[in-house]
Amino acid sequence: MERTLFQFVWTHSWRSQTVIVLASAVSFPLILAALYIPKLIVNDTLRSNDFPKDVFGFEFEQVQYLVALCLVLLLLIFLNNGVKYFINITKGLTGERILRRIRYTIYQRVIRMPLTQLRQRSPGEVVQVIAAEVEPVGGFAGEIVATPVYQGGQLIVYLGFIVAQDAVLGLAAIILFPVQAYVIPKIQRIVVHLVQDRIRNVRAMTTEVTESVTGIEEMRLAAAAPWHLARISERLYVNFRIRYRIFLLKYAIKFANNVINNITPFFFYSFGGFLVIEGRMDLGALVAILAAYKDIASPWRVLLNFYQTFADISARYEAVVDSYGSEPLPEEEEPLSLAGKKIRLERVSSALPVSSGGVREVSLTLNPGQTTLVIGEEEDGRSELLRILSGLSTPASGLIAVGDEEGRNPIQRAAHEVSLVTRNPHIMNGSLRENVAYGMLAEHGAGDPPPDWDRRQREAQLTGATADTPEMDWVDYARLGLESAEEFDARAVEILELVGLQQELFARGLSIVIDPAREPGLVAAALKARETVRLAGEEMELENFVEPWLADAYLENASLAENLFFGVPDSPKADPLVEDPLALKALARAQIAGEVVQIGLEAAETLQTLLGSLGPESMLLDQLGLIEPGEREEYDAIVLRARRRGLRWLGRADRMQLVRLALQLTPMRHRLGILDDPQRRERLLAARKALRHLYAPPSGFTRFDAGGYVPGLPLIENILDGRPRMDRRDVHPSIEQRLERTMMENHIEDFVLRAGLRTDVGYAGNSLSTSQRRRLALARALVSRPSLLILDGVVDDDDAEQRRLRQAIRADLPEATIVYGTSNTEPAIRADQVVRVIGGRLVAAETDEPPRSGPEETEQ
Amino acid sequence: MKLSREAEILAASPLFRGVDRAQLKLLALIAEARTFHDGEVMMAQGQEGDAAYVILSGCAEVLVKIGGRETLVAELDGNDIVGEMALLTESPRTATVRARGTVEVLRIGRDALLRMLQEFPGMALELLRVMTQRLERTTQELARTRSELERLKAEE
After folding, report:
1. Is beta strand A405-407 parallel, antiparallel or unpaired with respect to A397-402?
2. What is the distance between the alpha carbons of residues A140 and A148, in angstroms, rounded to a whole number?
């Protein structure tokens, strides 16, 4: 990155800076003209009788002349402000582009930084730098050339004007400028130091906050909150002191400026006045000087302010460059292929000391297509050795050779062909498919560009960023010889099955809600599956697991809303029925609204009695899922009002609240007993009939018995044409498993599995178990068909499932070089080569305990 | 009302005897209903479980695999609670429970119970008391069995 703020801004925006300067130059005569016209109007038009006037060959009478001048004035006002508007917009744009560029550049440098360097920074600090520290640069970048040029220009013009009139007076007007030019930078230098201190302090504070959030469990257990509060308090106090000193100095500068700027006229009045009285000076001259000085003082003050801001923001910029912009980045190297090549480590020592889990003088050869087993504890050097082999770590000394290529770590250049799975893989927030495809992303996104592509490209070019959007298709299908996203999906499903995630994938697929208009294929498959499942229903004991949508029965597993309207809104994003005024109106017209309010009141009363003894923040409410902790008091108040005034006199808001509660009630889930009365159910079912013709919202609503695909319901309910019974959830095998078996027998399970690929895994994969996360990471590693697969501490157990998995991996990657790392001293893994790491050194497996060599496939 | 009846049943089970009735109603409220049909396995020996069942109606048999053969060790019917060990520890199920006829149960999840205990420490104490009594009884039985064993050995 450029060393100074000015270099950075000028290099990347000199074009727009020039435009701003030129526009400023254009605006200057316009401003003067706009000031000059009123004078003409007063002096030349109103006070003069010298008409008709002859201007550019046209003759004007007094009124005509006035009108003409006013029109010119009007035109000038528009022009003037138009140019100003243009300048402001251009400045803003330039600033935003510079801001985007600087943020992008820093992020780019952060993610390319050598790992050893990056590990020393706290994530909080990086966020602070990218989000906050560079922000003011954006606001200022548009000024950086225009202000000094424009204001400086004004200053010179005025000064020239005065000097041309009277050299001595001109010099008198600027007599104190050198004093300011000398004193202010001196003070400003101290301010800059303080600004740097402040930046350091705030960075340390963000580090501290990040640490608190990540270590919150330890903090709670240790009851260490007071100590942490004291630490933050200390940081904030230091921050306060620095900021206090900064504004002391800033205002000191301002004070000095103001005093000096006002002292000059003081000289004029005192000495000048004296001279005038003495008769040695003309009064007119003194007035002229005072006026001229006023003109000069204004740009001069702006220039001084500009200098202060510039110094301040430069200090920030330099602090950022010092930490993130100065180190040279590793160069992009020619990619290297590992396929069919021997990998040789010769006397390799890690940068990490042995005492911290490093390795020393390790020599090892991996033959292509062979399996190597590295036995040892993680901290004994096993993990570091595997990290070196994966190219993540660069050794401090020794040599690594890939085929004929030798170097410190040429494996780094083969990232596309290496996969490493550890016990704690990082799972991204995104869909299963995105996670699986992560290992085979392309250089650029492909597929349909977004509609504003041209604009994005232009902006990208102006800010040195990429125009590609994450919404494009980033998967590098060609690398696997695949032709389409569908083929890749098939591969992803196959791999997820291989690693044992098929059941999870299927269950997830069943839960998705789709937009039928956009996915006719899925709808057709689901309806076909519905037919198949219906035919197999008896064998699957469906009637024991599914509550069908019977139009004349009260549904135990559906909410009151679903029971009344007997359907669901089409869009899953649409507000639930509870919030829809049309729905409430329909309830009133079906003459059931009163009953619903009554149900809500009964529920509120029951809950009030039951929850009476609970604390206000009770977690039990979450468990119930009917009302939010914050709503309890509201309901209590409503119950009280209903008792006092009677249900009929409840306010509209109260009634709405009760309806909202009532409509959520699901007999099987909430079991308050309120919906069990047969007569009440009769009434509700009668209302269902009436509502059929009373409710048709514009956003779409599909009834359960409409016959086709019901858009608002998850896939499983569409396939089953009913809802899985909540009270049958614990039966083994579950309805999902039965469905999976039946659909697999009929070879129609694929669309569900593919749908499962699209489901989200949650933040850091928290909707998956630890074991599932490892399996997903393994799938990610396998899908790209790596030439070198390294499995550190995973799939190393001696049970049937993992043995099957190892065989499946080998079968899927027959030509890959595979390295297993394990801490099992009696490993079950069959390998062509077995080595042990002890105390950071490599020891061949002891001969008295012969390594069980031979390919794993022969093992039974 | 349904919940009151369920609270009665909970109160009748040894585990919750002595716990406040209002709290039991609350427990019944956050518990979930489950139904099992004849022959269905309600819990399988050796598998992880995270819930206990309170039998509301119907009966079930408790089977333990001894030497590869399932042996009937107990029969359960209304008011019985089963699988309660899973509420407090994450150990695998020690027996298989199979429904005989249609069985309706109340499922008390570990999460739900732990939240209840957090809310009402008195309930935790009550549970502790019951568990301790059980442990005491088991210890006594163990001692008796041991002495019986010693006696038999001595007789040999």
Report:
1. antiparallel
2. 12
| Residues in chain B closer than 8 A to A728 (CB atoms) | 34-35
Beta bridge partners of A371: A818
**Domain range summary for chain B, segments of one domain joined by +:** 2-155
The answer as to CATH 1.20.1250.20 being correct for domain A1-144 is no
Q: Apex CA A710: angle with CA A708 and CA A714, to 5°?
A: 130
A646, two tokens: 């009677």
- Rg for chain B, CA atoms, rounded: 17
| CATH fold for the domain made of A167-327 | ABC transporter transmembrane region fold (1.20.1560)
Considering only CA atoms, give the Rg of chain A. Answer: 39
| Inter-residue long-range contacts of A55-58, CB under 8 Å, 24+ positions, other chains counted | none
pLDDT of A852 > 50? The answer is: no
Query: Cβ contacts of residue A356 below 8 Å, gap of 6+?
Result: none
Domain ranges of chain A: 1-144, 167-327, 343-427+768-858, 512-545+701-758, 554-699
The gap from C-alpha A716 to its chain's centroid, in whole angstroms, comes to 32
Mean pLDDT (chain A) is 87
**How far apart are the CA of A630 and the nearest CA of chain B, in angstroms?**
17
Q: Does A275 touch chain B (CB under 8 A)?
A: no
Spatial CB neighbours of A751, under 8 Å, sequence gap ≥ 6: A509, A521, A522, A525, A526, A529
Beta bridge partners of B70: B65
Tell me the average pLDDT across A551-568: 93
Nearest beta carbon to residue B115 from set A619, A726, A731: A619
Distances (CA, A) of A298 to A154, A461, B40: 9, 39, 91
Distance CA B22, CA B33 (A): 19
Cβ-contact A639, A708 below 8 angstroms: no
Instruction: Look at residue A703 and give its three-state secondary structure.
Output: strand
Level-2 CATH architecture, domain B2-155: Sandwich (2.60)
3-state secondary structure A151-188: HHHHHHHHHHHHHHHCHHHHHHHCCCHHHHHHHHHHHH
pLDDT the model gives residue A848: 39
Q: Does B110 touch chain A (CB under 8 A)?
A: no
Longest pairwise C-alpha distance within chain A: 124
Give the one of B23, B40, B112 whose C-beta lies nearest to A731's C-beta. Answer: B40
Nearest CA in chain B to A669: B32
Do the strands A441-446 and A473-475 form a parallel or antiparallel pair, or are they unpaired? Answer: antiparallel
Contacts of A848 (CB under 8 A, 6+ apart): none
The model's pLDDT over A455-511, given as tens digits with 9 standing for 90+, comes to: 999 999 999 999 888 888 999 998 888 888 889 999 999 999 999 999 999 999 999
Three-state DSSP state, A580: coil
CATH number for the region A343-427+768-858 comes to 3.40.50.300
